[in-house]
Specification:
This protein is of the alpha/beta class. The protein has helices spanning 15-18, 39-52, 66-75, 81-85, 101-104, 116-130, 141-144, 151-164, 185-190, and strands spanning 7-8, 23-24, 28-33, 57-61, 89-93, 108-109, 134-138, 168-174, 193-202, 205-215, 225-230, 233-236, 242-245, 248-251. It binds adenosine-5'-triphosphate (ATP) and magnesium ion (MG).
Length: 252
């Protein structure tokens, strides 16, 4: 018997080639990388592609004001307001704590991010209301940065809710510039996939590359590929490979 893996396309040019068509449905993928590596742009592009193709989405903002999320996305030409008005897209405001005039206009507000129960309830409500097929949490690190002991529990809980309600999710994980890991052992093993974004300084210039470290339920490319960020978002070069050896950094 052939079981066809249902996939969710990232819609990021070049990326789905590395995933043999896309992320297996209901997988929870950790998108890990240092500061400025493109995690937020990648996630927003993933969400917007879905909206354009009739797949509702939820974006959980823990790092930036929802107003700023809308503005950043619009800079790339990804205008989400129409989808919000139609109930197909929701931003969960887990940033403002409900403080400020702009926050009063938000529909999904987490008043205390330290209250994980409340956080999960608001996320659940947004997923249900929109019937989200895609979800992003930017970033999950914020949920447990001060309490690493609970990281795995928080993540398993989140994973149950997201996959349980039918979403294929990207969880942004922040790592420091020098860290080789992806966000800690509890987290790395709990997720279904890991995509790692990197920035390397080569001869005084920053180079971007990414690698799919794991993806449950599918074959995936095992090589490191260069990518670029432009006014249109991210583009991955599946035909180019980056080699980091003891002799240096080489793009072929
Ligand atoms: N229009 C653009 N053209 C080219 N590069 C851009 C453009 N807009 C942003 N960038 C690049 O993208 C980077 C920001 O990407 P992003 O916000 O996705 O990073 P991040 O991984 O989420 O970082 P952090 O962990 O700090 O939130 C900027 O530092 C810049 O290098
Ligand atoms: Mg970011």
């Amino acid at each position: 018997m052939i079981i066809v893996v249902e996939r969710i396309k990232t819609g990021i040019p070049g990326m789905d080639e590395l995933l043999y068509g896309g992320i297996p449905k209901r997988n929870i993928v950790l998108l890990s990388g240092g500061p400025g590596t493109g995690k937020t742009i990648f996630s927003q592009q993933y969400v917007y592609y879905g909206l354009l193709h009739g797949e509702p989405a939820v974006y959980v903002a823990l790092e930036e004001h929802p107003v700023q999320v809308r503005r950043n996305m619009a800079e790339f030409g990804w205008d989400v307001r129409k989808f919000e008005e139609e109930g197909l897209f929701a931003i969960v405001d887990a940033f403002t704590g409900g403080i400020g005039e702009a926050a009063k206009r938000e529909r999904y507000v987490v008043t205390s991010v330290d209250d994980f129960g409340e956080f999960i309830d608001v996320v659940k409500q947004a997923l249900r209301d929109t019937r989200a097929v895609r979800a992003v949490v930017d970033s999950v690190s914020t949920l447990y940065i001060t309490k690493p002991a609970v990281a795995r529990g928080v993540l398993m809980n989140l994973k149950r809710v997201l996959a349980g309600l039918g979403a294929t999710a990207i969880l942004v994980s922040q790592v420091s510039v020098t860290e080789r890991g992806f966000g800690g052992p509890g987290v790395e093993h709990a997720v279904d996939g890991i995509i790692r974004l990197d920035l390397d300084e080569v001869n005084g210039e920053l180079k971007r590359s990414l690698i799919v470290w794991k993806m449950r339920g599918t074959k995936h490319d095992m090589r490191r590929h260069p990518f670029e960020i432009t006014d249109k978002g991210i583009r991955v070069f599946p035909d180019k490979v980056v080699k980091i050896t003891r002799f240096g950094y080489r793009e072929e």
